[in-house]
Design goal:
two-stranded antiparallel sheet
């Protein structure tokens, strides 16, 4: 499914790939992995490479586009893409923490454990 398409850089421990996986590996002296993953996961790129049939949506990886720039430029882009991934991870973590806080506050208020005039 197009909505499920993603690209990432495997760092550290082995990664288990899901259904219809595609693993790309290259020489880091010629291709920065964060740059490649960042280009591939761009929503506009995925939309362009999407094919739709009556029963499914798929991404034709042959239609995905990657900027052609020097390895030095790739590394600069790669560093920025990595910061985006780190930011995305922090936002998801914050969303989870915020959801738990809302539940705990609601439970505390409904159980009479918080004063009614308590303010956020």
């Amino acid at each position: 499914m197009t909505r499920a398409f993603s690209a990432w850089v495997a760092v550290g421990t082995a990664t288990v790939l899901g259904p219809q996986p595609l693993c790309a590996a290259g020489d880091p002296a010629l291709l920065d992995p964060w740059f490649l993953a960042g280009c591939l996961r761009a929503p506009a790129n995925v939309r362009q490479a999407s094919t739709h049939t009556s029963s499914s949506a798929r991404v034709d990886v042959r239609k995905l586009q990657v900027l052609q720039v020097s390895i030095e430029e790739q590394r600069r882009y790669g560093a920025a893409f990595r910061e985006i991934v780190d930011f995305e991870r922090a936002v998801r973590e914050l969303d989870g923490l915020g959801g738990r806080l809302v539940r705990d506050l609601s439970n505390g208020l409904s159980a009479g454990q918080l004063p009614v005039d308590w303010q956020v």
